[in-house]
User: What shape does this take?
Amino acid sequence: MTAGPAPLTTHAEPVMGTVFSVTAVHGALAPAEVRAAITAACRILHQCDAVFSTWDAASPVSRFRRGEAALGQMPPEFAEVLRACEAAKEASGGWFDPWAMPGGFDPTGLVKGWAAKRALDELRGAGLPGALVNGGGDVAVFGAPGDGERWRVGIRHPWRADALACVIEATAAVATSGPYERGAHLIDPATGRPASRAASATVTGPSLALADALATGVAVGGDEALAVVAALDGYAGYLIRHDGSETDTGGIAFAR
Amino acid sequence: MKRAGWYMVTGAVAGFAGVLGFHSVGTATPAALGPLTPAGTGATPAPSGTAPGPARTAGPAAGQGGAAGPARTATGAVEQYGYGELSVTVTVRGSQITAVSVPLLRTAEQYSQQLALQVIPMLRAEVLAAHSVRIHGVSGATYTSVAYAQSIQSALDKLHAR
Assistant: This one.
């Protein structure tokens, strides 16, 4: 993988309170062009962060949460994310609900995936034959890592940071959620209280924004929420329960 | 279920190898399971009177009981695991782990104990050593910048950094 017809460049960008990883396939592009594409993709990530950071009290999303700014005063991306949140709430059967978060509307469970996809689109537009963007654990890919190859995405083992539970051959989006990294941040929309009925929840599908939201929903709702994902066209789910048993909806290409 | 029972058992053994330092227990063969007693001392007692049973067969442990000999139980040394101390007892029959229990668990606070009791019985999901499989990225719950530094994704990113 280090040499050969399809050289790769990787880049790690700290943004949105985590680290985004970019893997770019060069194809016919010169190294300088690849670097320029990665720089442009990272600029988009920082623009998304500036709009949607709930940590920055002056960000548009923070002002919206406090009721200081109306929707009409928001940047255009905000309305787009709002629509994506509405669609994700409906698709998840209510297990993902940014309006039920403590402290008001909080699209965080969807924004990283949405931003990673925008960065990926920038790389595609720059003429790269393939790329992978990993938004702190939520992965979007296009193209292929090399001739005849497929993107292989490991699913982190929920109680072993240095191990994987399985490997998935990805064609678009792979998002995973669970309580193991940041503790009780998963909120049950029905109660407004922390809840996680899965140790790890992974959702694959065409849109990383929706997959990200659905993975959050399945991490909260467990098997019941997984059944909702199973009924969605193009989406599939894989969950590890707290007792270590696993299940999936079918439709995921597990690699060995 | 997407995988056969055999892999689940292998996963359990690999999980213990990582958590408790049973490094010799890498594969679930009778020979490898010999050094289970006691963990951490390097002692390797022969599995007395136990002919190695037919390995690589999935199925209930009871089905192998006759051929594989009596159940053997071993309790690992008390280990520090990050939130406190624990010790684990494993019962093996032939090549299969038939029971796991936690006779000692000391944690600093109530929350850790709840967390540990939640986590310890859960060793059934497969554990793949990350260095043994070829991957391009890792999907997982959102990590902090600090956790990223210790992650598999971080190691991958260093591979082709320019």
User: Anything to note?
Assistant: The CA atoms of residues 6 and 56 of chain B lie 7 Å apart. Residues 134-162 of chain B form one domain. Confidence is low (pLDDT under 50) at residues 1-67 of chain B.
